[in-house]
Amino acid sequence: MVPVFLSEKDKVVHTKLLLENVKPASINKVPVILAKISNQTPTVFGKLKITSEVLDSDGNTVISKSSNTNMQMAPNSNFNYAISTNDKSIKAGKYILKLEAQSGTRNWNFSRKFTISKKMAARVNKKIVIKRNYSWIWFSLALLIVLLLLALAYWLGRRHNLKK
């Protein structure tokens, strides 16, 4: 048996969250932007809601959005918050991440400029699998079959009329 000594203080500990870094990655062959968030205090809290946007360097165009609720944060810990790129490949360039975290009455707002180099984008894109949309091939094939059937019906109709 190991003895445990617990102590308690009336001092309020204000939770301090930090946005440590932002970088592209692939998770399960899906391209994402990872935002490393760390809890710098020895407090645990739940009902954490995180909303984020990745914008172009001008801050005008939204590249990607993400939102999660009912998350929990352990004391003195960090985690990588994944922001989906909606299965689009990672492109080199300059971007802005705007991230807001809420837990109860506490709010944290972060804004971080980050750059994705061509080398970094190529490394991530090499690991991903982009879902291709081939529905246009099936549509074209169906249209071709319909046109061939119409041409055959026209030809048979003219041939039948010529025999009379």
Automatic annotation (TrEMBL):
Residues 2-126 form the WxL Interacting Protein host binding domain. Keywords: Membrane, Transmembrane, Transmembrane helix. The chain crosses the membrane at residues 136-156. InterPro entries: WxLIP_HBD (IPR021759). It holds the Pfam family WxLIP_HBD. This is WxL Interacting Protein host binding domain-containing protein. It comes from Oenococcus oeni AWRIB429.
